[in-house]
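Obj: model holo form, ligand = magnesium ion.
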Amino acid sequence: MRVAFVGKGGSGKTTLSSLFARYAATSARVVAIDADINQHLALVLGAEPPRPLGGMLTELKDHLRGDNPRIASAAAMVKTTPPGRGSRLVTLDDPFFPSAEVEGLRLMVTGPFNESDLGVACYHSKVGAVELYLNHLVDGRGEYVVVDMTAGADSFASGMFTKFDVTFLVVEPTRQGVSVYHQYKEYAAEFDVTIAVVGNKIQTAGDRAFLREQVGPDLLTCLDHSPAVRAMEQGRSFTLNDLEPGNLAGLQTLLDRVDAAEKDWAKFGRQAHEFHLRNAHAWANKATGHDLAEQIDPDFIFGNVALESETQAAGGRLWLAL
Ligand SMILES: Nc1ncnc2c1ncn2[C@@H]1O[C@H](COP(=O)(O)OP(=O)(O)OP(=O)(O)O)[C@@H](O)[C@H]1O
Ligand SMILES: [Mg+2]
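Output (holo structure tokens):
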């Protein structure tokens, strides 16, 4: 299952991504991905950042396109290019993707936006590495990919926000926080994206009541302002055992929400194709000199079925090689 944390700058996306990933990792396989322009997730998790995915786009494209005949080269592959027959699908423990092991989870990062990128690239091209990963990922129940997203409405600027089973919108109990919620709700409705609101940094019963009143049934749960998180920010060591019981219960509510989500591979495939066509028309056809609509394989079936048939094909190839 894939989960994104989005929200206003400073609302707590990185904090909640890291807490949720740690919490889920106590009983399941977890990949946490830092896809924010300000890379903080490794720091919060206490890990050395692994090699950034954003710096290995060509390798990654060559890996993922496998022997899909519709994708002639890495240069013809763009961030929205969907998998088709012959593409290489990935699972959570795929060793191709550089990661750091920390607290029982795998951390992957897009990498920072360097000064050398100014004027020649935008951060979306780095985040494109995650979009490609998510497009080719076959995940199931009981395993979680947790993505810490860019602040603000920027996370809606690419098709990436359609790649998740649940998107957690982190909202502080302020008018500004609530106005971001309204904005995101509109985007989410337009694109059939499942969002759930997580109140954060709650200090008083009044804070909680404010969010309940303003957000209504979209409010899934609230996490309190946490002295344990603050202590961690001040450099003290931190484990989940240090987290307040109410906040641990909040994390369990998030996990339950993800587990209750329906895995809809047909919708995922539809949206992947839709965003690829949009992207092709907007700039990618011109940039690559190809008609990228041809990359869509109408007979490819997204999801576990695809992985099974790929494994069978690989088995067949092995058998032929012998
Ligand atoms: N529940 C909480 N209790 C205490 N402090 C918190 C809590 N949630 C977040 N914070 C603190 O608020 C600050 C901002 O949090 P965080 O960095 O997670 O936000 P963000 O949304 O990822 O920000 P950015 O948009 O800059 O990426 C940090 O100092 C963090 O420790
Ligand atoms: Mg952050």
